[in-house]
Design goal:
single chain; alpha/beta; Rossmann fold; 2 domains; 5-stranded parallel beta sheet; 12 helices; globular
């Protein structure tokens, strides 16, 4: 690959200068051709292996962008349009800007011999912070105290400590490990679960379970955090059979993918009081429908898939792309390569 010609589909706000500087030192050209899909389409693709099977309208692509895409051999993107081999006939590498890639048509890329790397790790700190901001909101009764302030009620409402509690993290990857690090700072006991037990156990994890032993983790945890990627094994993982294994009065957190949870079962275990609270940054179908029962579930903390923080996100994504571009030009293995 003599010159790396990159279509930047992810809309940049401030990091164009970094790419310009990179182009002055390496055989690299970049073209700003923004392409960003709606949350509805992205969510639908995530439920259907990256395919727009429900025919949701895709963003209109100007002819000027199409002519540029036809000459590019690499892409930086959050979203990819349908028919990638047709639109990008010279494409060899896609650098995603999200940790997950279930909304990307991996089958299409593999068949065309296109490499995919993800941005795993660049938002782990922000997501871990978000988890604990929500946990503290619940255990310290901050919602109630805020409501009392609005109502001008002066009445003590004492909260609970996280210290001494047990947190179980399903999916000890980059996000799960950062959650574990912060849990240790709060004095919590940390349990973890992941498929690849042959990897070393992080220092912040007290005990690591295999994926097949997840029920043991659930039964011991005061807080359960789902932080695993979307796979066939994790689809509908948290259903009645899993919520019933969790301790009464425990808290469920999902900052991974909505497809992991059977939402009707979660609603049942919130309504009957078995779960103290649930924290969802993701739902199965995004945006959440206005008539969904989740809006009014007791002790449910909802947010619209925004646990990342954008103050460093773009810089981290571009930095990762540049490091991978240097590796690609040098013939070295890429970081976070999926295939």
């Amino acid at each position: 690959m003599e010159t790396l010609k990159t279509a930047v589909l992810f809309p940049l706000r401030s990091e164009e200068s970094e790419l310009s500087a990179f182009s002055e030192s390496y055989p690299f050209e970049f073209f700003l051709t923004p392409y960003l899909e709606s949350s509805e389409l992205r969510s639908s693709r995530g439920l259907n292996q990256g395919v727009n099977s429900t025919n949701i309208e895709e963003p209109l692509v100007p002819d000027s962008h199409l002519s540029i895409w036809a000459e590019c051999n690499s892409v930086i993107a959050m979203d990819l349009p349908s028919n990638i081999p047709l639109l990008f006939p010279k494409l060899k590498w896609v650098q995603g800007v999200s940790a997950g890639h279930d909304h990307i048509n991996s089958g299409e890329l593999k068949e065309a011999g296109i490499a995919l790397t993800t941005a795993k790790g660049i938002a782990s700190d922000a997501i871990a912070e978000f988890v604990f901001s929500r946990l503290l909101q619940e255990v310290k009764h901050l919602r109630k105290l805020d409501a009392q302030q609005r109502e001008r009620v002066w009445q003590a409402k004492f909260g609970n400590q996280l210290k001494g509690k047990t947190i179980g993290i399903v999916g000890v990857g980059s996000i799960g490990e950062e959650i574990a690090n912060r849990a240790k700072a709060f004095g919590m006991r940390v349990l973890g679960s992941r498929k690849r037990l042959e990897l070393s156990t992080p220092d912040s994890v007290d005990r690591l379970y295999s994926f097949s032993d997840i029920n043991v983790l659930l039964g011991e945890s005061d807080v359960v955090v789902m932080a695993a990627p979307s796979t066939i094994e994790t689809r509908d993982l948290f259903d009645e059979s899993k919520f019933s294994k969790m301790k009464r009065g425990s808290i469920f957190v999902n900052v991974a993918r909505g497809i992991h949870v059977v939402e009707a079962d979660l609603a049942t275990y919130l309504s009957n009081g078995h779960l103290r609270a649930a924290i969802l940054d993701v739902v199965r179908n995004e945006p959440l429908g206005v008539n969904s029962d989740l809006w009014t579930m007791p002790n449910l903390y909802l947010s619209p898939h925004c646990s990342v923080s954008f103050d460093d996100y773009e810089r981290n994504a571009i930095d990762l792309f540049i490091r991978n571009a240097i590796r690609l030009l040098g013939g070295d293995e890429l970081i976070n390569k999926e295939f």
